[in-house]
Amino acid sequence: MASANKPSQKQQAPQASGKETDGYALVLKGIKKNYQMGSSQVRALRGVDMKVKKGEYVAIMGPSGSGKSTLLHILGCLDSPSEGKYFLDGDDVASMSDDQLSMIRSERIGFVFQAFNLIPGMTALENVMIPLQIRGQQEEDSRKTAIHYLGIVGLGARANHTASELSGGERQRVALARAMANNPAFILADEPTGNLDSKTSVEVMSYIHRLWEDHKVTIVMVTHEPVVARYSQRIIRLRDGVVESEQRNKVFHDHDSARIDEKSIKLK
Ligand code: ADP
Ligand code: MG
């Protein structure tokens, strides 16, 4: 890897080295992903080109099966593409070792995935603390950090409940607290409001929005809810494994730095 890749480097100004990846958090070129299913092949991604600037907030939309989760798994270095190039902060992901990839996943990317489960038998507090301890934080420090972020997502009183005792919305918020506590450069969220009630959806979206506004993280969020997507700066639509269209978000720009509340965002 060319850079030391500390989380604090995420807000670095683009360097003028003249590379086409300069200023971009994520650059995808011709990304294809095939899955072998017995004798047939599923072409989940069929050549995706995409660039996301540092600090940009992008929503990915598209019908079920269009490749959204596959794309997010590749962006999160959880899976590798069958073809194509992926540059993360200018570095070619294909050239990275397994150790480097696992460091990137634990230090630079915050995952808010439904399938990215919490450890059910552990408390909310432990679920947030453990990744911090893996990264070398002392127990007391990691406890303080975890309590702080659980408080931010409104779960201070639930910190000592096990994940299995929490509702879906509360678990999603623990996942968000865990992602935030890691101070990641990127947040990858896969339908973060899926299966949440309206009030909790608004809360989760507010946290994500605040994280973006206050910490300038780069966000790529898959959602099927237009009202959720409109709080991003740009919407990328996938269909059949390719980018079908892109749109700058007019509503967002009309309500620059809008705070999300239940009046401004209505979810079913
Ligand atoms: P989306 O998130 O947009 O609903 P996915 O990325 O999950 O779409 O899936 C895209 C396509 O790839 C679908 O046809 C799906 O069935 C297929 N697919 C996804 N993951 C796998 C897998 N692990 N093995 C085989 N096929 C898969
Ligand atoms: Mg999906």
Key terms for this structure?
268 residues; alpha/beta; Rossmann fold; 2 domains; four-stranded antiparallel beta sheet; binds adenosine-5'-diphosphate; binds magnesium ion
Description:
- This protein is of the alpha/beta class.
- The protein has 2 domains: 23-108 and 186-268, Rossmann fold; 115-183, no CATH class.
- 31% of the residues lie in helices and 26% in strands.
- The protein contains 8 helices and 10 strands.
- A 6-stranded mixed β-sheet has the order 6-7-8-3-9-10. Strands 2-1-4-5 form a 4-stranded antiparallel β-sheet, covered by helices on one side.
- Helix 6 links the parallel strand 7 (186-190) and strand 8.
- The protein is globular and about 45 Å long.
- The model is unreliable at 1-10, 253-259 and 261-268 (pLDDT under 50).
- Magnesium ion is lined by residues 68-69.
